[in-house]
Amino acid sequence: MEVIYLLLSISVLIALAFLGAFIWSVKKGQYDDVVSPSIRILFDNNNNNNNNNYLDNESKTTKTE
Amino acid sequence: MENRNLEHFEYDNAIVRNFLIATVTFGVIGMLVGLLIAFQLVFPELNFGIPITSFGRLRPLHTNAVIFAFVGNGIFAGVYYSLQRLLKTRMYSDILSKIHFWGWQLIILSAAITLPLGYTTSKEYAELEWPIDIAITIIWVIFGWNMFGTILKRRVEHLYVAIWFYIATFITVAMLHVVNSFELPVSFLKSYSWYAGVQDALVQWWYGHNAVAFFLTTPYLGLMYYFVPKAAERPVYSYKLSIVHFWALIFIYIWAGPHHLLYSALPDWAQSLGAVFSVMLIAPSWGGMLNGLLTLRGVWDKVKVEPVLKFMVVALTGYGMATFEGPMLSLKNVNAISHFTDWTIAHVHVGGLAWNGFLTFGMLYWLVPRMWRTQLYSKKLADFHFWIGTLGIVFYALPMYWAGFTQSFMWKEFTQEGFLKYPNFLETVTALKNLYLLRGIGGTLYFTGVLVMVYNLIKTANAGNFLANEPAEAPALIKFHEESNEYWHRWIEKRPVQMLILSFVLVAIGGIVEMVPTFLIKSNIPTISSVKPYTPLELEGRDIYIREGCYVCHSQLIRPFRSETERYGDYSKAGEFVYDHPFQWGSKRTGPDLAREGTDKLRKPNAWHYTHMLDPRLTSPNSIMPPYPWLIENKLDVSLLSEKIKAMKKLGVPYPDGYENQALDDLKKQAKEIADDLKKNNINASEDREIIALIAYLQRLGKDVSLQKSTAQK
Q1: pLDDT 10s digits, B648-664
Q2: pTM score of the predicted model
Q3: Neighbour tally for B679: CB within 10 Å
Q4: Which chain B positions have a beta carbon within 8 Å of A33's beta carbon?
Q5: Which of 4-63 (A) contact B at CB < 8 A?
Q6: Distance from B596 to chain A by nearest Cα, in Å?
Q7: Which residues of B568-598 are buried (b: 16+ CB within 10 A; e: fewer)?
Q8: pLDDT for residue B710
Q9: Closest CA–CA distance from residue B236 to any residue of chain A (Å)
Q10: Residue A22: which of B247, B467, B516 has the nearest Cβ?
Q11: Are the C-beta atoms of residues B577 and B197 closer than 8 Å to each other?
């Protein structure tokens, strides 16, 4: 059963690593803005309109034309 | 927009395409194998009487193929596509990408060869032998290197939530794989697990549970958070919730593993810990599911006409169902019914077919037209795929739930006089045959949909024009770091992720190397004095048992219920398994438990075992077990015997000094006894065949403890 201490310590290590990552991300201001990142991912190459033929053809083009 | 900092670069689409092709290819192969083994349970003739197509060898091939080849390649395709776009940069290194791709496919190929040939560690979802384990580690690290390299050269400061899911996947899977794969090589393709018995079971299910969590769930949640908003063309319902979802999920998930070992020899507090955390998991899981579904608010009209979104809706619903069911199955009273039955099979397939399968399909239908710069060849066919796939899931899951309940209640039913109502285990299996057939039909429906998808995607790709390097541009990331005089401090600040991982890996490796060998082996001191190491012949027989995958259908763990102790004998104790490298508890009882097969209560004559292995239907009409005629023809390979004894000694099994030199003589002596006994029953078996070793092992099971009992009674 002793192996449980090994598993627990490894699990705690992983948890601590993630805790560190969490603190880092908060300190770095990763979560200062929790609105625009979700919108930003919707626009690929939004300032390069010559090259957007992979963008969703159905909605984007019908709207503009 | 000022163009001062605008940088031009290209997204690597070729690597995404390669992973996509691999996803589809191995999806078809893995599911085809799944179909075959599903029908083998109805028509045992489909085992074809040869080793490489027998159920025990193909089932691990099916699980490994769908998990690591189909879903694995799906993860990599989705990650390589989304990571570049989320971070506005090309992958860190094209060479690493290529090594990752080809390395992973080679690992899959080696699995596809070794598993049917019987090279297996018998640890579920970690069956691959040690050289392949090392290859997996290397390729996984290359994947991580490439991913973190990309993160470090990103042009977007914020790490979108999907990326956090990818990071968690990488770190945790690396750790799990390394810890669970601790094994002592005996030869190039044979090893023994470093852990024994209960320890091995604990490590295995700590791995097994987290493999589901961090290979089938977290990476797919990352993909969900990218592809669902992209396909719906609207931001995720609540980005805040997605952040809470991520952190809550990863902090809770790793503690839930013990729910796989309820009512086992695991200490009660550990079982309760696992159950409590499993129930807590509902909160983040459902938060994530609702977040995904609510993203579609206002576009349900689009869901009606867009196959991509339909697939994603069912995927999310499947995720919600599976993550509600999981915690329920972790409750001890529910687990008492569900464990070892087809309920588990239903549960994993709702997760696998709906969540992983449908999300992959949705992603494929979305990605292929974009990457090949065209429209999907046929929306109608995609709709057909959707409906036949959904129907397939229903036809798969419902019969399996039914089968699970039916069998479990038959096992537990007593007559009014207090005897087991179905003392013959076979009755509880033949009762399920029609349900198994229905399940096979459900699988066929699902597979048909996949084939239609393959056709649709090929047609789409052929009509399109693939762009291998997609031009893009983005402003360079402005660094806000101030100059610091302390060099090391600056260095760390610039590389937080690297430092984090480096220190974590160092500490973990140091800890493992120091702790494992010493206290694990010392702790294997038997607590039951009558439990003795296996004889050489039994050890060889045990290796055949492992090679043929008997553990896939036969458990070796009797739970402390009256219905089980009546049927099989005394419940299992931790001390019985101290020499079991690896453990053979199993997770499913398609056949009866074998933990006490050699005791007086269950013991069958050697001749019965011989005939039964030759063709199970000779001794047990209507049995669905595959035949094993090759065990009777094959000569037992004893060339590794002394190496095996030496390895076992190294792992703490107390064979006398120098026993490796005497082992072969003992083996021959015991084999002759069994062969002589068979001759008395008119079976002319030569003593150097594999069947003799397997019989020796089966006759030994549970015997030590029953010996102790009978002496204690006297």
Answers
A1: 999 889 999 999 999 99
A2: 0.90
A3: 13
A4: 158
A5: 4, 6-7, 9-11, 13-15, 17-18, 20-22, 24-25, 28, 30-31, 33-35, 37-42, 44-45, 47-48, 51, 53-54, 56-57, 59
A6: 22
A7: bbbbbebbbbbbbbbbbbbbbbbbbbbbbbb
A8: 56
A9: 6
A10: B247
A11: yes
Task: Give the pLDDT band of residue A3 (cuts 50, 70, 90).
Answer: confident
Please answer whether residues B248 and B283 qualify as being in contact, where contact means their C-beta atoms are separated by less than 8 angstroms: yes
How many residues are present in chain A? 65
Q: Which of A6, A8, A55 to mutate to test the interface with B (most CBs of B within 10 A)?
A: A6
Cβ proximity of B418 and B566 under 8 Å: no
Could you identify the residue written with the tokens 């627990």?
Answer: A8
| 8 A C-beta contact, residue B446 and residue B27 | no
Q: Which residues of B touch A31 (CB under 8 A)?
A: 243
pLDDT in tens, B264-296: 877 787 788 889 999 999 999 999 999 999 999
Question: Tokens at residue B370, please?
Answer: 């974009």
SS3 B193: strand
- Give the whole-angstrom CA distance, residue B247 versus residue A9: 20
- What is the gyration radius of the CA atoms in chain B, in angstroms? 27
- Find the CB nearest A14 among B175, B266, B520: B175
Question: C-alpha distances in angstroms, B106 versus A13, A42, B102, B110, B298?
Answer: 32, 35, 6, 6, 45
**Largest distance between two CA atoms of chain B:** 95
Residue A7 has a pLDDT of 80
Q: For chain B, list residues with pLDDT below 70.
A: 1-4, 479-500, 502-526, 707-714
- Chain A residues closer than 8 Å to B85 by CB: 41, 44
CA-based angle A7:A9:A10, to the nearest 5?
65
Cα–Cα dist B14/B536, whole Å: 53
Nearest by CB to residue B202, choosing from A4, A38, A47, is A4
Complex prediction ipTM: 0.72
Answer whether the bond into residue B60 is a cis peptide, omega within 30°: no
Three-class DSSP category at A16: helix
**CA B548 – CA B537 distance, rounded (Å):** 17
- State phi, psi for B9 to the nearest 5 degrees: -155, 180
Report residue B8: phi and psi, to 5°.
-105, 140
Asked if residue B248 lies in contact with residue B285, where contact means CB atoms within 8 angstroms, the answer is: no
Alpha carbon of A27: minimum distance to chain B alpha carbons (Å)? 12
